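Appendix C. Worked example: Branched-chain amino acid ABC transporter permease protein
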Amino acid sequence: MLFLQQLVNSLMLGSVYVTVAVAFTLTIGILNFLNFTIPTLFMLAGMVGWALSYWGIPFGLSGPLPWPLALAMGIVAAIVVSLIVERFTFRYLKTKYGDSTEHAIPLVSSLGFLLIVENLVRIGYGTEARRFEGPDANMTMDVGGILIRIPQLVSLIITILIVIGLVQMMKRSRIGRGLRAIAENPDAANILGIDTKRIVPVVFMLTGMLCGLAGALFAVNYGEVAPMMGEDIGAKAIAGMVIGGLGSIWGAVLGGLCVGLLELMTVHFFGADTVQIVVWGALLIVLIAYPKGLLGHHSIGKGKL
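Step 2, the predicted output written as structure tokens:
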């Protein structure tokens, strides 16, 4: 029974990794660069949500806000920062330097944003973990002796619905077809009349929304936020994305769930100290056996979304 309980817990934790891994997949699958601000967006939503629920809007404009509203504003903050990153790590540099910015410069500049935002949060709120007062911790249900927290179940359902909606949007909507065309061949997309300056920000908006939602769900489910919380989640989400297959949304889903399962099963059998060894060891084994990942494609940017 304890094993089944851990299995259920791993599924709930994996839903957080899934959301962040899908965010990574969008930027690397469509724009072909690794967006290092993603862990910061995850952290920012949780920290902004905590600050607004604990203190309220700055300068005395309000008292402490209800936690759902505070987290909603945290998600908005993540989206806004993501769009700022798009403006200065992709659009501006691409316009100024052209194809020389294809990989290295956006990657390094996004890393700069990560460090700036993370340190601003640390200066403003300190480095300690903060208790987030969300829904009642006793909101659990017993299913055949297995305890399931209702907020975690709701989070899992929300994650599944978002992934399904995102996949359908990519396949059926005009914006989705434009994004897939850019992923396939940006120059050909421009020739076909797709306005990349209007379409590309959608990727960053979706990235901010996914990361913000993941940060909000993490705060609700685990009742704690910290300025450094994005680093571990981001690293494991990258591992999940690679295990599942670069550029594949469903690969990110599978990889995120696998990482969640590996993490909690490792804690259950071997202790927390061995988690990193097992997760990254599994990543290396998958890459040796399946270089493209479990559900990956032959190359990034070639019709995989």
